[in-house]
Fold these 2 entries.
Entry 1:
Amino acid sequence: VRRTHGDLSASIVAAVEQVGARVERDAATDLLTINDEFTTSVILARCRSTPLGHHRWLLRLEDSLRPDVTVAARLTPANDSILDYYLFPRIDVLVSRLLSDQNALSIDVYRFDDLSFFIGMATRAQIEAA
């Protein structure tokens, strides 16, 4: 099963809406606005193998959109399922746009096995009455 950007984006929207968040999608740019609070760009990073058998993932970040958070889904070496996710905040500018099998801690601090943390960011919290 080949994952597409549209599939990934739709699954993220569904997961965020399931916890009660509101998502608006810009049809021209695919930029997601969540709860009128922050914007998100979703990218799918396909794996490429080097001649020596190492794996590389090129991140095609949408700098012109200036999303608050970029969700990058890294695919497995077979490019048939999601390996992990990176949540990059706009405030941190990435020097390298290439991920590998072994990344520096400064990159892997943004790595997550699933989208639980991101979905938590979108979850609305009830404020108790004073």
Entry 2:
Amino acid sequence: MKKILIFIFFFLNFSNSYAEAKISYIDINFIIENSIVGKSLNNHMNSLKKIHFDKFNKLENDLKKKENELISKENILERNEFQNKVKKLQEEIKSYRINRNTSNEEINSNKIKNTKKILLFLDPIIKKYVDNNSIALVLPKKNIIVGKKNLDITDAIINILNEQVKEINFE
């Protein structure tokens, strides 16, 4: 009986599989922010935001001037005329806010659309890297609590992306 137990223990102990599945992680946001095309996207978006900010800042200053002028004329104008001018100014302010929100939404949708362009270039690069390095699973870094630095493939992917894609035409 003792020999059977030793025999079973011996075979059960060596029947474990010692295969290793290679797992890595990647920080897509870091790649989008720090690659050459990612930096060009950020510059493009910053210039768009500046143009829109300057435009709406000027409109806002004009509205404030109109409001101050209207307040200064409150005692001079007739009540009905003053009320009409207040309503007109409120409509202009409402229109300004709608236009500003629409512009912000356009900027955000533009950024999403252009980020998708970068991801279209990035996807085959990651797939090829995974195949060439026999990686079984790639996880997003945001879902990793702790991991060895040598499992991070972000820098390698950035280097490949920078070599293959120098510029993307953003709209």
